[in-house]
Amino acid sequence: MIGPLISLRYIFGAWAKKFVTFTGNSFNSQRLGRLKFSNKKLEAFDIDDLLRASAKLLGNENLGITYKATLENGISVVVKRLNYMNELCMKDFLQQMQLLGKMRHQNLVEIVSFYCSQEQKLVIYEHIPHGTLFELLHEGRGIGRINLDWSTRVAIIKDIAKGLNFFHHSLSSQKVPHGNLKSSNVLISYDDNHGYHSKLTDYGFLPLLQTKKVAAKLAISKSPEFVQGKKLTHKTDVYCFGIIVLEIITRKVPGQILGEIEEITSDLSDWVRTVVNNA
């Protein structure tokens, strides 16, 4: 759910106040240095420009809090304030973000820029306007539920597969290139001429997580390899993709199946297997 309009300066609290001060109606800013931009074609803005932006809360998930920020020039971006990375080596973060920032594909959300200090690590993405696949599938149940015909569902699945395939080929040396593939990390845009278009986001953070306890906050933690303590590979991402496919087909929420009639498991893949075996 999108929260009320506030400023990023207010959201970031004490950290922002160390760098941003107001004197009367004039704005004086101690420059923090420029953000690291992935797309040189975009108009550059500094971290203090970002702090002046109006913002709405988009989500608060395990790896961090996400906001939609509207800059004074009217451009909207999405800012993810990362958790669990303050102890991370700055060099490692910079290298991974520079690598991810080079990724360009019609089914990947583009990383516009990022900011790195010992206190804060921010990733700034392009803004995709129509919410997440999770919201499309599961919100508005009943009369308000959006009908998705099979051709639309197949098109969404194909978009996700194309994005994941590109990512796996581009980052073939990384054991689990996405690492956090789930329906809430698939963003949706829509227009009347082309219908729904899907893009993957929140990718590439696994190499930056220093403990298995923190990695357990990612979607891959539900995979058999992770649960059994086995070696993680590209197939771990493929398992997560399979769960999304089942979610799109059944429109059931993974992990929330218990309590329905004759359901004996909260695992979506187990539920589907049980239904097929009993058919």
UniProtKB/TrEMBL annotation:
Q: Where is the Protein kinase domain?
A: 52-279
Q: Which residues form the signal peptide?
A: none
Taxonomic superkingdom: Eukaryota
To which species is this protein native?
Answer: Lupinus albus
For this protein, the record's Pfam families field holds: PK_Tyr_Ser-Thr
Which GO molecular function annotations are given, in alphabetical order? ATP binding; protein kinase activity
The protein in question is named Protein kinase domain-containing protein
InterPro entries, from UniProt?
Kinase-like_dom_sf, PRK1-6/SRF4-like, Prot_kinase_dom, Ser-Thr/Tyr_kinase_cat_dom
